[in-house]
Amino acid sequence: MAEDSILESTERTSGHEALRKNVQAAIALAGAVRSTLGPKGLDKLLIDDSGETMVTNDGVTVLETARVEHPVAKMIITASSTQDKVARDGTTTTVVICAEMLRNAWQLVRQGVHPSVIARGFAQSETFALSSLNELSIRATREQIESAIETSLAGKLDKSMEKHLASLSLEAADVILSDGKADPTRVKIIKQTGGSMSESTLITGLALAKTRIHPEMKERGGPGSILILDGGLERRKPKFESKLNITSTGMLEAFREAESKALMKQIENLVAIGCNLLVCKEGVDDEARQALSKNGILAYRRVEKRDLDLLSRACGANLVPDAGRATKDDLGVFTSTHEELRGGVNHWILEAEHSGATLIARGSTQSVIDEVERCFADGLGVACQLLEEPVLLPGAGATQVALGRKLRRFAESVPGREQLAIEAWADALESIPRELASNSGYDGIDSLLKLTSAQIESGDYIGLDLSDGKPRDTISRGIMEPMTITRQAISGATEAAISILRIDDVLWAQMDAQIPEEVQDGLQGLGAE
Ligand code: ADP
Ligand code: MG
């Protein structure tokens, strides 16, 4: 069978034309986020299907919300999402660098350099750059860690709020750090509408907006044993279909009595296994409530499944379906429990070996609180990385320019055409200081030239001061980024660019392959073959 007939109703683009279209898509995608880069980047208003709106300048949020169809654009969005998962920051940087690498690669292809040679040159550049990062890095002091978290939140909220959230993130990361590892999922976030966002606070331990089920139960206590019930302490309610055939007087009472006995038996078991604190997913009957209180067992009911899981992890307790059958092995351990009013709402606060911390995010409206939550989560991610690996790189474009200078010297030692690819890769990296400058109203190319010559004179830590566009020392100004962010951005962008460069044939099952609309802006100067 001829190839054409196999590929019936499939649109096919191959060779350089495929690459050109893919590069177009990448540039278009970067065009959608490049104006958000840096502390002076602008915001985007996002509107979803149901008319919900969100204002953000977070690159990955923009891309994940946009309905992008082009497969190559999707590959880059995946690189950006991975960046978000691994490093919690640097998502716009990844997209901008990747698109720039592809744009430069295309220019080389037009000059007759084969894509696989470019891919090789890019891979060499990545290896060289990653190993050079160590020479640029500094070991962070506590103060520098806090500055770096602030840098990563720069431009997201107002300055004082960025500072507040940076310090809460670091405080939370401190609480969850154990054996040199900090797992951000150990921090719970409670959203509380009302008040100002600056009233957001951090609580050590696991907090739930709950009150004990009986006022006579002691609200403060511990250490002790906790049982987590994936059910309740309630009489079974006879369902309508299951008719009770009352044939003699007192039969209903007898039935009730039996139920009540069963309930008490469950509580006896709790006492027998030594449970001091009971948490239930469902309700607790009045009778059981009294009995628990009498037996000195503190109890909380109607706790969401998600919170039960957190409690179980915090205290090492099993989730059991039936209080009557629970054993000592099902119990977990807590160190303290108490209740406290926060923002006018009563909170139950439990501390245990792995109870982590809880942020109470406050704000006047839901969307403000959502933004506080997102920023805190980003700050926390960065704080955790920095406690695990307290290594920083200079920000404000300094690292990219320093790497660019090193790469150009390295390129001179590479004989083949890969040399051109290494220079193209270095150029792509320098798109970051160029964009930072132009998003702040300065000329990108002039700023880059000034920065390069300032670095030659005064060293690798000189970056752009965006308040006046002049080159200045970044370390003394506290503009630094975690090594993890830059490392991941470099490898994520390069790997995505290389896989796109290797595509030589695009087969579309449908006829109308869509390229995002902004494509027109990015196309000038690309030229068809
Ligand atoms: P990303 O999504 O890639 O993190 P951002 O919009 O957060 O994008 O911008 C990050 C860039 O902004 C980094 O290159 C960082 O060095 C730079 N940056 C942050 N704060 C400053 C500052 N005060 N002055 C100059 N550059 C800054
Ligand atoms: Mg950022």
Question: What is this structure, in a nutshell?
Answer:
With 529 residues, this protein is α+β, with helices and mostly antiparallel strands. The chain contains 18 helices and 20 strands. Adenosine-5'-diphosphate binds at residues 36-39, 41, 59, 89-93, 151, 154-155, 395-396, 432, 436, 464, 466, 479, 481.
Bound molecules: adenosine-5'-diphosphate, magnesium ion
Q: Span between N and C termini?
A: 32 Å
Radius of gyration: 30 Å
Oligomer, anyone?
single chain
Q: Percent of residues in helical segments?
A: 40-55%
Count of extended strands: 20
Which outline best applies? elongated
Q: What's the total helix number?
A: 18
Low-confidence stretches: none
Beta-strand portion reads 15-25%
The averaged pLDDT comes out at: 87
Structural class assignment: alpha+beta
Query: What kind of sheet is the major sheet?
Result: 5 strands, mixed
Task: Give your account of this protein's structure.
- With 529 residues, the chain is an alpha+beta fold.
- 49% of the residues lie in helices and 16% in strands.
- It is built from 18 helices and 20 strands.
- Strands 8, 9, 10, 11 and 12 form a five-stranded mixed beta sheet that branches.
- Helix 10 links the parallel strand 9 and strand 10.
- Helix 6 runs antiparallel to helix 17, helix 8 crosses helix 12 and helix 13 packs across helix 16.
- The radius of gyration is 30 Å and the shape is elongated.
- The model has no long low-confidence stretch (mean pLDDT 87).
- Bound molecules: adenosine-5'-diphosphate and magnesium ion.
